[in-house]
Amino acid sequence: MSDADIIVIGAGIVGAACAHALARRGLDVLVLDARLPGATAVGMGHLLVLDDNAAELALSNYSLQRWREWGHDMPAECAYRSNGTMWLAANDEEMAEAERKFAVLREHGVAARLLNNAELQQEEPELRSDLHGGLEITGDGILYAPRAAAWLLESALKPIRQRQAKVVEIDEPRVRLDSGQWLSARAVVLANGIQAGELCPGLPIEPKKGHLLITDRYPGKVRRTLVELGYVTSAHNASGPSVACNIQPRPTGQLFIGASRQFGTTDPQVEGWMLAKMLRRAVDYMPGLANLNVIRSWAGFRAASPDGMPLVGEHPQRPGLWLAVGHEGLGVTTAPGTADLLAAQLCDEPLPLPAKPYSPHRFLGANAHA
């Protein structure tokens, strides 16, 4: 007799969403995580539609709609807000990118509007005065991911069992804990981010380090999450160390300041030179930041796949092992879409999205090996 219908490894936002979706289908779900509670604690919690490619747009747009639906039910401590994202154009080239994004997003039914210099200054007066304009995505939002993950685990129609335990081996559909105990299930879902490679060697996942800072409380400074359009080329697609302006207002009145990306390191320590570089970039866009107090900084790792898309589905070489990994910086955003897509495949239901762009077969199938 199995210990559960489904064992989910990882209680972060992706694992919690997967557990929630599976429990909604009446399955007995057991979630295992060595860090319970406290998973999903290092990101910004920015919910945004991105359109670098059709698959990213489809998954993020679908997921944002699900977050907006959940937002009506989430408790206040989840800090969900549909405050929007303002993409900032610093030159003609970036304004052209804003216009391109606007056309694509409008075509897919995403609410957006273009702003010129004067309109941008009126909406976000803390920004420097010579920006060319901006693109507002009105349906984007923010949340506090650790509490949102806990809510997903606590609010499922069928109770989800949680256990603080470290999984050291997967022999699908069984898992071995560091205590030596074996647990069995009908299927195992691996959703523990950057640690997934330890339990499933061969996953094409690379750690991408990021730093964040948070200020003291300064209510009303910023209304929307402010992101430079240079992010599209400087940070999101770069292979070396990079920074981009990303300033997010929190419901507390504090400001999150990002963003940075570094490959080729697994050092978890905060690096002063990177913080300085990141702050200089943010101050360049919002000069008044230089007068605010930063009270804390930290670093974490995003699990990045080679093409930037997550691996969602059954492992082609290991039947019974299901993957929900490799989301890089979009794990919080795309957790609902990932969960619905995985649960529909696992339960043999109609798919909410085409599965192929996110299929593990693109890296782990026979053709990929050949």
From TrEMBL:
InterPro entries: FAD-dep_OxRdtase, FAD/NAD-bd_sf
Annotated FAD dependent oxidoreductase domain residues: 5-344
Gene3D superfamilies, per database record: D-Amino Acid Oxidase, subunit A, domain 2 (3.30.9.10), FAD/NAD(P)-binding domain (3.50.50.60)
Pfam family, one: DAO
UniProt keyword annotations, A-Z: Oxidoreductase
Database matches in SUPFAM superfamilies: FAD-linked reductases, C-terminal domain, FAD/NAD(P)-binding domain
Molecular functions (GO terms): oxidoreductase activity
GO cellular component, one term: cytoplasm
Protein name per Swiss-Prot or TrEMBL: FAD-binding oxidoreductase
Organism: Pseudomonas denitrificans
Source species taxonomy: Bacteria, Pseudomonadati, Pseudomonadota, Gammaproteobacteria, Pseudomonadales
